[in-house]
Amino acid sequence: MNTRWKYxxxxxxxxxxxxxxxxxxxxxxxxxxxxxxxxxxxxADGTAPATHAWCSSKLTRSGLxxxxxxxxxxxxxxxxxxxxxxxxAGDAELASLFGAADNVTVGNRSPEEILVAExxxxxxxxxxxxx
Length: 131
Known about the structure:
The protein is α+β, with helices and mostly antiparallel strands. The chain has one domain (7-122). Helices cover 34% and strands 24% of the residues. It has 4 helices and 6 strands. A 6-stranded mixed β-sheet has the order 5-4-1-3-2-6, sandwiched between helices. Helix 3 (88-98) links the parallel strand 4 and strand 5 (104-106).
């Protein structure tokens, strides 16, 4: 079993810091696609305009270390990290690693649980029914 990509992270951030976070991700964690990592698709009531952006990604250990460096730079953003598949020992390791980061929560949560915790909803795209 390959355990290289054994971590999962979700980031939720206000639009005001989305571009700065994307630039920081592009500057180190993901040079090829980082500039468009966070997507502006969230609001309090699920209707446009978006007020927040989010992303989800599987990570390696080095990716986790990159997030650890970014977390204090963007205190208005929230990070959620866990092992994937869930692993209590791995989550305990993550809690130890990210313990000082006030804006990071450790433990497996679904995207829906994260949105409820943040008081946000997805903005569903409008479907074009023209034929």
